[in-house]
From TrEMBL:
<dbReference type="InterPro" id="IPR009003">
    <property type="entry name" value="Peptidase_S1_PA"/>
</dbReference>
<feature type="domain" description="Peptidase S1">
    <location>
        <begin position="14"/>
        <end position="145"/>
    </location>
</feature>
<keyword id="KW-0964">Secreted</keyword>
<keyword id="KW-0645">Protease</keyword>
<dbReference type="GO" id="GO:0005615">
    <property type="term" value="C:extracellular space"/>
</dbReference>
<protein>
    <recommendedName>
        <fullName>trypsin</fullName>
        <ecNumber>3.4.21.4</ecNumber>
    </recommendedName>
</protein>
<keyword id="KW-0378">Hydrolase</keyword>
<keyword id="KW-0720">Serine protease</keyword>
<dbReference type="GO" id="GO:0004252">
    <property type="term" value="F:serine-type endopeptidase activity"/>
</dbReference>
<dbReference type="GO" id="GO:0006508">
    <property type="term" value="P:proteolysis"/>
</dbReference>
<dbReference type="InterPro" id="IPR050127">
    <property type="entry name" value="Serine_Proteases_S1"/>
</dbReference>
<dbReference type="InterPro" id="IPR001314">
    <property type="entry name" value="Peptidase_S1A"/>
</dbReference>
<dbReference type="Pfam" id="PF00089">
    <property type="entry name" value="Trypsin"/>
</dbReference>
<dbReference type="InterPro" id="IPR018114">
    <property type="entry name" value="TRYPSIN_HIS"/>
</dbReference>
<keyword id="KW-1015">Disulfide bond</keyword>
<dbReference type="InterPro" id="IPR001254">
    <property type="entry name" value="Trypsin_dom"/>
</dbReference>
<dbReference type="InterPro" id="IPR043504">
    <property type="entry name" value="Peptidase_S1_PA_chymotrypsin"/>
</dbReference>
Amino acid sequence: LRFTVVALAYSIDIVGGYECAAHSLPYIASLNIGYHICGGSLITTWWVLSAAHCYKSSVEVRLGEHNIHVYEGTEQFISSSIVIQHPDYNDATYDNDIMLIKLSSAAILNEYVSTVPLPSPCNFPSAGTWCLVAGWGNTLSSGSK
C-alpha cells in the first residue's frame, strides 16, 4: 500500500482520494506489530498521536514511510516506550478515540520525518472547514487499489 490522501468535509467514510507525492506529508507514522495496523501523526520528536481503537500495549512506529511494503531507505523504526489510551475511550461508541504513543528514542527530523504543523493555541479551524485525511488504505471502495 502506498500513502493516500482524501479531503473530507462531512463524510465519515474514507474511500477515494489519491496517492500523494512520496514523502510530501513527513509527519505521518505507520503503527506496526509485524504488519501495518494504523496511522498516526508525529506531534513532537518523542510523541505520536493516533486513535485509541488502534491500541496495542507495544507497537513499532515507522516514520519516513511512503510505500509500507518496500524498504526505501528513508524510514526510522522506533519502538514505543508507553502507549496511552484516553481514559474515557469507549470502544462501543468510539467516544474519545485518541491515543498517545511515547517513542523509546527521539525521532530524527529530516526531509522525510518532521512534526505535524499544529495550529497555534486558540486558533482552531471553524466548523465546516475542509480537512485533509491521510493514511495508508484503498482508493477504491472495491479494495482493488
